[in-house]
Batch of 4 targets.
Target 1
Amino acid sequence: MSELTTIEKVGLYGGAALLLLGTVGMGLIEILLGAPHPVSGEGQVVHETLFSLSLRSYTILLGLLLMAAYGVSNLATKPPRDTSI
Amino acid sequence: MVTNIQTQLLGRDVSFPVEESRFAYWLVVMRLIVGWWFLHAGLDKFLAWPFDASWFVGGAAAQTSLGPIVTLFADGALLSFTNVMVPLGQTLIGLGLIVGALTRLAAFFGAFLMTFFYFINGETGGWAHGVITGDLLGLLIFAMIATLGAGRVLGVDAYLAKTSFVKNHPRLRYFIG
C-alpha cells in the first residue's frame, strides 16, 4: 500500500475515514454528548440526535463512493499486480 | 502453514502472520453463506413471479439520499428493467459466489445492490436500530470477498485464471478471483 498515488490515497483513506466518521465517529459523539436513546415499547430506538440522520447518511455515502471510485479507477488504469491468477 | 503478510498502512509497517488454512476455510464459508443469501433472494422472486419493485424505487424511497436516482426507475420501461434485473442480478450474484465464478464481478454488483438496500431501508426506517445494519455488513462482506478474490479457493475462477484467454487479457483478473 506504500506506493499509492495521492489520488488513490484520497479514495482509500478518505473513503474509509468518512465511512468511519459517519458510523463510529458520530456514533461515539452521540453516546458521549448526545441525548439518550430510549427504546420504545416496540423495540425501536427513539432518536434525538446531535447529527441529523441525513448528515450521517451523506457522510457514509460519500465514503463508500470514494472507495468505489478508487476501485474503478484502479481497474481502468492498471492491470492487477497479483499475477498468480 | 503461516504466511507473513508484509505491508504498510499510513506509512507504518503493519506486517502480520496469517494461518493459511483458516484463511482459505473462512473465504469459502463467507462466499457460500453470502452466495446463498442472494441466490435465495433472487429465486424467491422468480418463484413468486411477477416481481414488482415499484414500492422500493418509488414511494418512500423518493425522500432518501438516493431518491433522485432510484425514482428514475419508478415507472415505465425503467421499472420493467428493474423488475427483471433485481431478481436476475441477485440470482447471478448468488450463483457466481457459490460456484466461485467471476467472483469479483459478482461481489462488485452485490455491493452495488446493497448500497441501495442499505440507504433506502435505513432511511425509510429512520435508522431505527442505528446506522450499522445487516445491509451495511452485507455490503462490506461483498467488498471483502472482492478484495481477497475468494473465488480462487474451491471455485471455478481457479480454473478460469489458467485459461490462455485470461492470461492474454490480464485486466480480466479484476473480474475473476
Target 2
Amino acid sequence: MRRARVAYAGAIHEATPAEGGAIRLADGRVVAEVDVVWLPPVEPGAVIALGLNYADHARELSFQAQDEPLVFLKNPATLVGHRGQTRRPADATFMHYECELAVVIGRPARRVARANAMEHVAGYTIANDYAVRDYLENWYRPNLRVKSRDGATVLGPWLVDASEVEAPPQLALRTLVNGKETQSGHTRDLVFDIAFLIEYLSAFMTLAPGDVILTGTPEGVVDVKAGDEVACEIEGLGRLVNRIVGDDVFGRVASQAALADAREGR
Amino acid sequence: MAPFRLSGTVVAALLNHRRSLAALGDAVHAPPYKSPPKAVVLAIKPPGALVRAGEALLVDDAATELEIGATLGVVIASTACAVAEADALSHVGAYLVVADAALPRASHYRPQIRAMARDSSCALGSSAAPRDDIRDPDALTMRTFVDGALAATASTAELIRPVARLIADISDFMTLHPGDLLLAGGAADLPRVRAGARVAIEIDRVGRLETHVALAERSAA
C-alpha cells in the first residue's frame, strides 16, 4: 500500500498509484501525475532530523561520528511536496541537497525498547533536506537558518506502508542532479539505525503518529543552482523530484553587498 | 475569548538575552564557537513539550534538575514572510507568559533536544494579553518565583534582538504562520529546581503563570 496527498481540481485528496504511472484519487478519478500538486504525504507534528548519521558523510564533512546521535527539530511548516520548488538565496555559494530515508511514525512511542521499536513505524518516504552551508555557525549547529528554511525539505511522493519494506530497511539511495548521479549510498551504513533512534528519542519525547524522522544522508553532496532539477531515489520507495529556483521567483531582491560577498566567497 | 489560537509551531530564540551570552565570556571567541552568533539562534519545541498552566513540568527522577527559563511568548496572528522590522509587530496577536524548562547544558555547540525538547517541559500561560494592551513588548520585567521566593529577575529590555527584530530575522527564511508561538528568550543564571518545586512566573501586564515540577510515570506506551 502506498498513499500520497495531492491537490486536484479544487480539493486535497488521498491518492494511490494507478496503471501507467497515473494516480487514482480516493474518489475514483484517475489523473496524470503531472496534473496534480503533490503535497507532503503526512502532516507531522514533529520533524526530527539526524546529522552525520552516515560514517562516509561525516568524514566528508571532517567530523568524527559521535557517541550520541546529532538530532535537531525542524519546523514542520517548511515541508514541501514532490515536484515543489526550493529557493536558493542569491548570496549562497554552497547549497546542497541531502537524500534521506524518512521514517513515519504510526503508533505513539513513549519509552519504547529497541526490540519493539519497529512496531511503531507506519511506513517510509523520501526526503530531500537542503542545507545552505554559507549560513553555518557553531551555535546549536546546524543552526536553523541552514536547515529549517521555507520549502527546503521536500517529502514524498508516497508514504509506503512498512509492510512493503523489509525491517530494518536495507535500501540503496541516490541523488541525480539534472539526470547525472552525484550521490549514492545504502541505508545499511546508518551509524544509528531506526530502532535505536526510536528507542533513544522516545526516552525523552513521545513520538506521535505522523511524526517524521529524517535519518541522515550519505556522502556526495554538491552545490545546486537555480534551474537545477534534483531527483532523490530510494530503492522501492520511488523518486522525489524538485526544482531549485532563484530569489527572483519569490519576489526577493538581494542586496548588492550580499551579492558582492557571494562573488568573492566571503 | 482569547484573540489567538495556538495550533502551530513553537519557535524558541536561544542566547537572545544579553546576560545569557555575556555569561559565556571570552568562550564565545574560542573553539568550538570561534565567534559570537551572527544570525538568530533558534530551536523548535515539539507538541509533546507543551503543557498548560497548572499542569506539571516533568522530570524522570528526584535527582534531576530543570532550569526554568522565564520567557515572553509572542503569538503570531497573521502570516509573516520576509517582513520588515518596522512592520513586524503588526503580525502579533497576543503575548503570554511561558516557562521553558530544560536540562542544564554545558555547551551550546550542538542541538540538544534530549535536554530541550522533553515531554512536558514548556508551560504556557493560560491567559494572553492582546497586542494592543502591550504598547512596548521590549520593556517588560519578568520575575521567577520558586516555592514563593523571588529567584530570578530579567527584562525584555535586555534582549539582543527585540521582539520586532526577532520576527523580521526569522521570517527572512522561515515564515511565521497564524497560531505559531515565538519564545523571545530567557536570561542566564536560571533557577534550578527539582520534583516538588512550585514555580511561578510573572511578566508585567502580560500575566502570571503557575506550574510545578513532578516525577514522570515510568510506563511505556
Target 3
Amino acid sequence: MSIPTLQGLQTALSGLVAEQTALDVTGSNIANANAEGYSRETALLQPNPPLAIPAISTLTGQGAQLGTGVGVANITRVRNDYLDAQYRAQNSALSAAATQAEVLQQAQSAFNEPSSAGIATRLSAFWSAWNSLAASPTSEAAKEGVVAAGEELTSALHALSGALSTVSSQSTEQFNALAGAGGQVEDYAKQIAQLNGQIKLSEEAGQQPNDMLDRRDLLLDKLSALANVAVTEQPDHTDTVSLGDAAKPLVEGTTVNWPQELTEAAGGQLGALLGLTGPKGALTGLQTGLDGVAETLAGTVNGLLVKPFFSGASAATLAVAVTAAEVQASGSKAPGGNEVAQAIAALRGGAAEQDYSTLIEKLGSDVQSAKNEQVNLQTTVTAINDQRQSVSGVSLDEEMTNLIGFQRGYQASARTLSAMDEMLETLIEHTGKVGL
Amino acid sequence: MTTERITPGMIAAATLNDLNSSFASMERTSEELSSGRTILEPSDNPYGASRVIDLQSQLDGLSAYEANTQDGMAWENTASSAMSSMRTVVERVRELLVQSANGANNQSDLSSVAVEVEQLTEGVKQDANTQYAGQYVFSGTLTTTAPYQQGANDEYQGNAETVSRAVGPGASVTISTNISTLLGNGEASGDGKLLDTLRTIAVDLRGGTAEDVAALGTSDLTKLDANIETLSQLQATAGSATDQLQTALSRNEGLQSSITTSLTNTQDTNVAATSVAYSDEQAAYSAALRAAATIVQESLLNFLH
C-alpha cells in the first residue's frame, strides 16, 4: 500500500487551479453583465479520477479509492434553446404588428380626421356652398363659392391620395432596403454563415465556443424581427436557418442563399410590409375606398347636372370641370330657378359621405386592432424574455456570492498546500535528527 | 434551484417598461384635457369617429337649412310689406271710388281723382317691383326681370314658376307669390284683375257720361272688391308661408341642440373625470419613479467589504 508522497500537493494544486478558473469565469460574467445577448457561463468542476489503492487496510487487506482533487470539465453557457425558439416566434409576430400599427398610423395621420381640415369638413362645406347658391341662384359670388368649395375638396382628395401613395411607396422601399441585395437580411445571413464556420472549427477542436454561440443567437433574434425564423442545429453544430416562406434555407452551413422571393406569409416586418401594400392590403384598401368616395361624389353630383361639375373618377384625378359662370342652379333658363342646387345640397349625408365615414371607421378599427395586438404581443415577448433572462442573465448578487465561494475555496486550497508543505518540512528537515 | 432567478437586467427592463407605460398614459390623458376631446384620431374610437363625422355634417346641414329659412323669412317679409302697401293704395282707390260715385262731383273733380288713381296705379306697380337682395320677389323665377314696367305697358313680365327654400331634409316652403293673379295684364287684356280695374276706373272717371259715373259705383266697385279679396288671399298665403318658416326654424333649433349634445357626448372630454384620472396617473408615475430610484440601486455589493 502506498500513496505518493507528493500527491497531496497535486490535489491542493488542482483545487487552486479549479477555483481560479471558476473565479475567472465569474469575473467574465460580471464584466459582461450588461452585454447584449450574453449568456452567463459556469465552470463545470468535476472530481479527478481517483487513485486506486489496492490494500489500504492492513487489517482486512481491503482496497480503497483516494480522491485526487478537482478539474474543470468544461465552461458551458447556461441557455434554454426552447425559450429561444419561442422568443423568436413571438418576436416575429410582434414586429409584424408593430410595423402594421406604425404604417397604418401614418395613413391615419394623413386622413387627419376628425378635424376641421379633413375631407369630411370639405365635403360638408361643398354641400353648404350649393345650398347658398340655392338661396341666391343669381349671385355670382355664390357660384364662385361652389367652384371654390369644389376645388378645395378635390385638392384635399388629391393631397390625401398622394399621401397614401407615399406611405405605400415608402413601405415598398423599406421592404427593398431590408430584403434586397446587400440589405439587412443578407448582412445578418452572412454573419451567421461566418459564425457557423468558426463554430464548426472550434467544436471540432473540442472547444465549446460560448461567445460565438451567443453572437449567433443574437443575430437569429434580430433576424426574427424581420421575418419568421426556423433554426435547425446540424450534427456539426452549424445552424440551418429558414426565413419566412423563402423556398431555400437562408443559411446552410457557410452558404447564404439570398435574395429570394418572399410573400406576406413570411411574417415579421417584411411580411407585414408586403401584406400592407399587397392587392388585398390595408393601404391598397384605403386607396380603393377613397377612389370609391370620389367616384360616388362625381357620379351623384354630375347625375343631377346637364354639364358635369366634376371630371375624373378617382381621388387623384377628380377635378372641377366648370367655371363659375357655367355653374347652373337650375335646369331652366330662369335666373331664379334653384331646383338643381337644392337637389345637390340635399346630397349631404348621402352615399359619398357614408362611404367616407365607413372608410374612417374601418381605418380606425384597423389601427386600433394593430395597436392592441402590438401591446399584447409586447407583453408576451417581455414575459418570454424575462424567462430567458432568468435562465441566462447575469445576476450580480449571484456572481458576488459565487465570487466569495470561489475565493474562499482558493484560500482553503492554499491552506491545504501549506499544511502539506509543513508536513513535508517535518519529514525532510527534521527526520534523522533525533537527539541532535 | 427553488426560486426563479431574478437578474438586475430584468428589474431594470421591467422598471423602464412600467415607467414608459405610465408616462404614456399620463401623456394621453393630458392631451385629452388640453384638446378637450376624447377622439383625437379614428383609432381612439372608430365608431365614435365616424359618428362625429356624421353628426358634424348633419349639424352643418341644419345650419344651412337655418340660413335658408331665415333668408325665406326675410323674402316673405319684403313681399308682405309690399302687399300691405298695395292694400293701402287699393283701399284709398276704393274710398275715392265711393266718393266719386255719389253723383255730386263735377267733371273737373272727377278728372283730378282720375289723376290720383293713375298715380296710385303706378304706385301699385312700383310695389310689385319690390326687390329682396337684388331679386324681384314677384317675378316667379325670372328674378332678374322686373314684373311690371313703369308707364302704359301693364303686361306681367315674370313667369308662373315658384321659388322655394329647403328648410329641412326633404322639406321645402314656397316663398314666391304669383302677383299676376292679383295684378293681371292691364286694360288691354280685359282680365278684370287689379291693373285692368284701376285703368277702367280712371277711364270712367275721365269719361264724364252718366253711364261712366254709374259704372264707378257698380261694376268698377264690384271688380275692385273682388281684387281686394284676391289680395287678402295672397296676403294670407304669404302669412302662412311665414308661419311654416317659423315652425321650421324652431324645429331646426331643437334638432341643432340635440345633435350638438350628441356630438359633445361623443367627442368631448369629461373634464372632471379626466382630471381625476390624470391626478391618479401622476401619483402612479411618481411612485414608479421613486421605486426606480431606490430599488434598482440595491445590490449585494452595497454590503460586501
Target 4
Amino acid sequence: MSPVDGAGAFNPNLPVDPAVREGRIPGRAEEEIPELHEVDCPPELRERIEALMGRYPDRRSASIPALWAVQERYGWCTPEGIRQAAAVMRVTPAYLESVASFYDLLHTKPVGRHRIEVCTNISCWMRGGDRLLDAFKAAAEGDEDFFVTGFECLGACDIAPMASINQRYYGPLEAAEAGTAIEQLRAEAEVLPEKALAKRGLAGDG
Amino acid sequence: MPHQLEKRVLLDHAEDPALRTLDGYRRLAGGYETLERAYRDMEQDEVLKELEDSGLRGRGGAGFAMGKKASFLPRGDMAKYLCCNADESEPGAFKDRELMQRNPHQLIEGIAIAALAADAGHAFIFIRGEYAAQADILDAAVAEAYEAGYLGKNILGTHRDLELVVHRGAGAYICGEETALLDALEGKRGNPRLKPPFPAVQGLYGGPTLINNVETLSNVPHIVRHGAGWFKGFGTEQSPGTKVVSVSGGVKRPGNYEVELGIPTRELICDLAGGPEDGHEIKAFFPGGSSSPVLKAEEGLDLPYSFEAMAEAGSMLGSGSIIVCDDRVSIPHLALRTARFYHHESCGKCAPCREGTNWTVKMLERMVRGEATPLDLDIVSSVQQNIIGHCLCVLGDSMAMPVGAMVRKFREEFEAVMENPELVLDPHAVVQAPPETLGASV
C-alpha cells in the first residue's frame, strides 16, 4: 500500500516520502533564506533591488527586475548573485532560480559579453534568418566575448531578417553584415548604424 | 505622405521624433488635454459608458469588447489594478513596438484614463524583455508624466491617485497570455492560471484587474476626446475604429499600416505593403499572426479585413498581423517552423500542449525528412484536434489551429514531400529549411 492509499490515517509503519521532512532532495535540509551578512552583497546591488521592491505592492514582484540587476552586474545570473538577491528580497535562492530558468533572456550559465539574438521565426526564416544565424555563428566562432543564439520572434518582422545585438534591433541584414557587426563590436565601434531600427521611418511614409 | 488608403489616428504625427517627448506630444497631438478633462470633469461611469458605446474591441488577439471588460470589475474600496499587456510576442506582430517607440505618451494617457474607468490605483505596463529600447523610451515618458503631475498622488489636484510602473519581462511568449502575465508580474514563473476566476474579478495580487493591449489603450484618449460616435465612424459595425496592421513575410514593403477595419485585405497586402516580389505570387497568408489558421490566397485576399469576416472564413483577425507566404514557401516546412515555435514556448503545465507540440514537431520533422507514412498525416491532424480546447490557455490551440489548417488545405503538398524524398531539397532541412524554396534572394 502506498502512502497515498492510506491518506488521512497516520500509520507509522508506512514509508514516508522524505521530502515531507527533509525537502525535495533526500539528505538535504529545506533551503533557507540566506542572511544578508552571509552573502556579501555589493551595496549598489542591494540598494537597487530594494528600490525595485519598493515599486510594487508585493516585494516578490521585483524578482525579474532583480535578476536583470544581477545579470547586469555579473554578466549572468551567477549562483552567488542569485543568493545575494535572495537575501535582499527575503526569498529562497531556489525561488529566484526557478524564475531565472524560466525566461530566455536570463542566463543561468556564463555567456559572452556581447549578446546576439538572431530571429529565426516565420517572417525572418522566409527571408533567410537561418543563414544569418549561421553567418553570425561563423563570424564569432571561438571568441568567448560573443554569445550568439537563434531566437523566437523578436517582434521586428518589418526588418526581417534581423538580429538583436546587445539589446538593440538591426535589420534587414545581409549574411555578410554579420561579420561587419562582429568586427565593429570587437573594435568597440558603432554597430551597423544604417541598419538600426531606431533610425527607421514609418513604412507607409516610403 | 502616407498612402491614401491609410487612416492615421494612433500613428498620426508618428514620423516626428518630437512626439516622444511630453512637449512634442502636447504640441503636435493636443496631448493630455483629454486626461485633464476626464480627471477634472468626468465620473467613472461617464468614461466607462463612452468606452462601452464605442464598441472598441481588444487589439491583442481575442477581440473582446474593451468597455465591457472594464465594466466586469466589481465596485468597492478594494485595491484594483490595470495591466497594459505590452508583451507582444506573437510571430508576425510588431505594432505595439511601433506605438510605444513613437508615441509613448498616447499609451500613458490611455492608461490613466482607462484607470479612471476601472477605478484602478495602480497600473503596470508589462513589456517584453526583448523590447529594451522601447522600455527605456517608456521609462523616460513615465518620468515626464510624473513630473508634469499626470501620474502619482493627487493628479491635477483632483484627489485621484495613479501609480504607473514599467515592468520589463525577460523573454517568454507565454507571458502575453493574461493570467501568465499576472503570475510573471507577481514575480513567479509565467504559468497560466485556471479560469474562472477571470482577472476582472481576481487578478493581480488577488484583486480585480483590467488587462488590455497597448493598441487598445492607445485608442482610449481618442475615444474619450472625440466621443464614441466619432470612433464608430471608422471601420465596420462589428469592428469599429482603425487598426495598426503589421504586414510581413513575402511582400515588398513590410511594415505597420494604420487602416480602417474592413478595408479589402488585398489592398492592405498589395497596395500598402507592395504585394509579392516580382515574378512571384501569394500562396497563402496568416491573417492574424502565427496563431491564426492560414488562408489560401484565393479564399482570403478579397475578404474585408475585419474581425467578423476573418472569423467567418474560419480564421481570425487576432492581433492584426499579416504574414504573407509567396509561392516559394514550402508549407510542410512552414508548419514545422510554426510548430517548433509553440513547442519551444509551451510552459509545460498542461499535457495536451506540452506533449502535443512535442509530437507535432517530431512528426513534421519525419515528414520533411521523407521518413513519414501517409498515416502520419492523419495522426498529425488528430493530435491537433486533441489539443484544441483541452488546455488551461490557448497556446496549444495556437499551434493546433494553423498547423491543422495547413495539413487540411495543403494536404497534397505534404503528401508530395513524403512520397518523393527528392522534393526534400536540403538533407539538413530539420535544422535549416531549403533556401531554394524560401526566397533566398528576397
